[in-house]
Design brief:
By secondary structure, the protein is α/β, with parallel strands linked by helices. The protein is 27% helix and 15% strand. The protein has 7 helices and 10 strands. The strands form 3 sheets. Strands 4-1-5-10-6-9 form a 6-stranded mixed β-sheet, with helices on both faces. A two-stranded antiparallel sheet has the order 2-3. A two-stranded antiparallel ribbon has the order 7-8. A hairpin with a 4-residue loop joins strand 2 and strand 3 (119-121). Helix 2 (135-152) packs across helix 7 and helix 4 packs antiparallel against helix 7 (289-308). The radius of gyration is 17 Å and the shape is globular. The termini are far apart. The relative contact order is 0.24.
Length: 310
């Protein structure tokens, strides 16, 4: 991703992968997701670095839904057992990537935090479209829409940041801790990429197996793969956005072991890069409120399918 600041805990800006889109889009719809190949990709590009990653493989399937509106009130009280067809008792943590205030807090976001495998910057600024629509604004808008949809299904939803609070961050390790402390049944970090013009499409990032320092993803690798595969299928179906043509070999799935938000999670968690903000075609979608509602719908359906196990 092209951005102001250091490498951040998000999958932005990578070198284009070799080879064509090898998986037909129809094959990505829930029910046809079994046996997807997942690749851990090589970093690089304008982000100024990125850890080398190795190929891995993943499977699974999924589906379900809800409706719009922005700022709904969050449910309170102790979660009860799920009612039939309801997500009551289920907790979802939504992590809107970056923060508008990060630009004014360079010292704070450049501070290194421990992500298990190594130390990394607390956070970064994220990217923006060429006309200045920031990733931080995009992710919070989609998070609000997604929260509304999930709450209508009966879920309890927590955000790692909301509006202007906090003024910067949180750091990537704290974002993971918020999901862990909530004992989330599912957690998702929302992003948009900042790669080169012509690099299009979405990808979902799955945690690889990490066991180092404070990080131990081994218990969540399987369920996170299930969650991510379902989200990828329903996101494709609802938005029509193709899987990335520069990462994931056409599967829309990438596995990484260098992201603190995944490494430090003890609950099923994935990242989603909804599109490339620096590509004119993707930017036209990402800046559309109508499309962002579809994006929230697609993510919601994947999460609901995962939580219901259907």
């Amino acid at each position: 991703m092209s951005y102001v600041g250091p490498e951040f805990d998000s999958p932005q800006s990578r070198r284009p992968r070799r080879g064509p889109l090898t998986v037909a889009l129809a094959a990505l719809v829930p029910g046809a997701l079994l046996g997807w190949a997942v690749y851990e990709t090589a970093g690089g590009g304008s982000r100024g670095g990125g850890a080398d990653r190795t190929a891995t493989a993943a499977p699974t399937s999924g589906r379900s839904a809800a409706s719009p509106t922005d700022d709904a009130k969050r449910p309170s009280g102790t979660p009860a057992a799920p009612a039939s067809g309801s997500l009551k008792g289920k907790v979802v943590v939504i992590d809107p990537g970056h923060n508008q205030g990060n630009f004014q807090h360079a010292d704070e976001i450049n501070r290194k935090v421990d992500i298990g495998t190594n130390k990394k910057e607390c956070d970064t600024t994220g990217t923006s479209t060429n006309d200045g629509y920031t990733e931080a604004r995009f992710t919070l808008d989609v998070a609000h829409r997604l929260r509304t949809l999930l709450e209508k299904q009966g879920a309890t939803v927590k955000l790692t940041r909301d509006g202007d609070s906090p003024a910067w961050g949180p750091c990537v390790d704290e974002r993971a801790r918020i999901g862990n402390a909530a004992h989330a049944d599912a957690a998702i970090s929302i992003h948009a990429d900042g790669s080169a013009e012509g690099n299009r499409g979405f990808h979902v990032i799955l945690p690889g197996s990490v066991h180092a320092g404070a990080a131990d993803t081994r218990p969540i690798v399987g369920p996170s793969r299930d969650l991510g595969t379902r989200v990828a299928g329903t996101f494709l179906r609802e938005t029509g956005e193709p899987p990335s043509n520069y990462l994931g070999e056409g599967t829309g799935l990438v596995t990484r072991t260098d992201l603190g938000g995944l490494n430090l999670s003890t609950v099923p968690k994935v990242f989603i890069e909804c599109g490339n903000m620096r590509d004119s075609k993707d930017a036209a979608l990402l800046t559309s409120g109508t499309w962002r509602q579809r994006a929230a719908q697609g993510i919601s359906e994947g999460i609901v399918s995962f939580l219901r196990g259907s």
